[in-house]
Amino acid sequence: MSKTTDTLFDLIAITNDGRLFYESAIALISSPQLKTLFSEMARAKANLSTVLSQQLTAVKSSPANDSGLVGQFKMFYIHALAALQQCSDASCLQELEEIEAHLLDVLESAVVECDEISHLPVLHMQMKRVRLCHAHLLELKRRLRVA
């Protein structure tokens, strides 16, 4: 199995954890703006996981054990969920923005280091979607800091 395939399996696990986080977080917050953003993030993560899973099914790969990266993101999301009830919307968005920026870096690295040409179109398409969600998160963070 290639390094890119391993990375894609990691991204699937990470985005599944992220989707579960955002779905759980919706029930813990009262802000309509955050509920809307979190719903969008959950849908985007579900889509990313589905598309990457389909890509890997097409090349008949199966996952290795979770990497340290998967565990790292799992801990990020667990910590963020616990903190969600104790922080302001703006400070929670700051923490989530850092997590999502790190995920964006991982996805960008997967594109740059891609050693399987068949994965590139899917990775580029998903990068656009992840960047758009990240931009929405940044915009809401900016609006809440201004208000």
Description:
It is a single chain. This protein is an all-alpha fold and 147 residues long. The chain has one domain: Ferritin, core subunit, four-helix bundle (Ferritin, Up-down Bundle). Helices cover 82% and strands 0% of the residues. The chain contains five helices and no strands.
DSSP strand count: 0
In CATH terms, the superfamily is Ferritin, core subunit, four-helix bundle
Count of discrete structural domains: 1
Q: How is the CATH topology named?
A: Ferritin
Question: Can you summarize the main beta sheet?
Answer: none
Shape: elongated
Query: Helical proportion?
Result: over 70%
Low-confidence stretches at least 5 residues in length (pLDDT < 50)? none
Radius of gyration: 15 Å
Calculate the mean pLDDT score and round it. 85
**Helix run count:** 5
Query: CATH first level: which class?
Result: Mainly Alpha
* Estimated share of beta-strand residues: under 5%
Corresponding CATH architecture: Up-down Bundle
Distance between the termini: 50 Å
